[in-house]
Amino acid sequence: xxxxxxxxxxxxxxxxxxxxxxxxxxxxxxxxxxxxxxxxxxxxxxxxxxxxxxxxxxxxxxxxxxxxxxxxxxxxxxxxxxxxxxxxxxxxxxxxxxxxxxxxxxxxxxxxxxxxxxxxxxxxxxxxxxxxxxxxxxxxxxxxxxxxxxxxxxxxxxxxxxxxxxxxxxxxxxxxxxxxxxxxxxxxxxxxxxxxxxxxxxxxxxxxxxxxxxxxxxxxxxxxxxxxxxxxxxxxxxxxxxxxxxxxxxxxxxxxxxxxxxxxxxxxxxxxxxxxxxxxxxxxxxxxxxxxxxxxxxxxxxxxxxxxxxxxxxxxxxxxxxxxxxxxxxxxxxxxxxxxxxxxxxxxxxxxxxxxxxxxxxxxxxxxxxxxxxxxxxxxxxxxxxxxxxxxxxxxxxxxxxxxxxxxxxxxxxxxxxxxxxxxxxxxxxxxxxxxxxxxxxxxxxxxxxxxxxxxxxxxxxxxxxxxxxxxxxxxxxxxxxxxxxxxxxxxxxxxxxxxxxxxxxxxxxxxxxxxxxxxxxxxxxxxxxxxxxxxxxxxxxxxxxxxxxxxxxxxxxxxxxxxxxxxxxxxxxxxxxxxxxxxxxxxxx
Length: 590
Description:
This protein is mainly alpha-helical and 590 residues long. Helix content is 65%, strand content 2%. The chain contains 24 helices and three strands.
């Protein structure tokens, strides 16, 4: 209804002018927000490859990381933030307030990318490898439907070559500023870079069958192939330059220690990451104490379970026993998949008692490509998106089954699929009410994403009775311990000066993971993706607090299904936004 029409209706109904004025202010504020969101969204569609792929954009843009690119993005984001700050939030409906706050958090990430540009790890397996692997996925799936796609593919390769050139410039700049990665990270950096180079050799060329449906003359195809070959040579040269830098320059500048605390500005950067990945204002020191308290509590509960089981020995002795007990070892990939499916079948009849709505897409398990199993420690969840992918799938690693005790298999399934990642990601993708920018996974929602999955497998899984004996309950506590230990060692190495050996000893004493996994995990926390490991345990911790706040507000009227619907229907949001939203839902229910 137009504003003028609204005024006539208000007057005709005898409603006070003030109320109509409030309606007008709300409509004006909403209109302003709509324009801000649309401007930001158009920018994402032009610059964010994830947004482009998810929304069927054909002109894909390789991730940009050059200083100029990051600065332009930050300047744009700062402009959006100013426009959001000028809004009259009190005049916005609740849903619009959430929209504005989520958009602001996304823009804050872009501004921080500039502010901490030189401190952010750049050539490491997660930071560099994940960005390139995501783009490799785009190259692998690029479809040639029309003649213009030949030019689009060439532009994509141009972006690839520029990305690699900028990666070297950034790494050189970090070295000049005494911000080189730790020496212990160099082997992983080299193997990742070499592996990506080999992958590019296979992915960049385009086979005849991919071009078979194009209605273009042979000369244009020949010219296209020539340009692709030329770009592949340039991409190889960029990789060779990176490898030469890693082999011949980095070792002389790489520090022996680990953790962000050792760099100038590192403490401030880590505090930023703590805020980003937990969406709290807690300090690294307070989080460290929380992690230690969690570890101590879990040790007491595990000791009680060992007594229930009748095992007369320490936690470490119990883990050694589990590693060799045949009941916890799959005999084949088929056996492993059958066990995973049994856990999914166990939860399915219980879902209705705990959730009002579930995703339309089903969830399945499937084996990871064996060629990738050496590089992927565990496995990963793949969402039912883009169109054509109808399942939410957990791809599991079936290699070295004699070294993969399955005592943590039940909570793993409940974390990755039902009611964990599949429930929140598939619901978000399927939502008809969320703006498209809200469907893109972002760093500012890491605590929500991982926190929900851990809450689902932990607190909720136990309440649902998913762990049927003391061994399974022990496995659940082992996964809780994994996330509690992560909080402790991440903050320990990055803020409190722990050497990596101390972190590894702390982990090895408490986790069932192998020595090799402990080594790679501690390198990840301290040199590659500092702070991100906090998302799991702290996210679950906060979501549990938010649930208890809703329970206190509603008393006997509290229904856990209402809480779950409030959390899942709003999509991935920073946890302070989630807390306010759940409280708003509770107040509406009173």
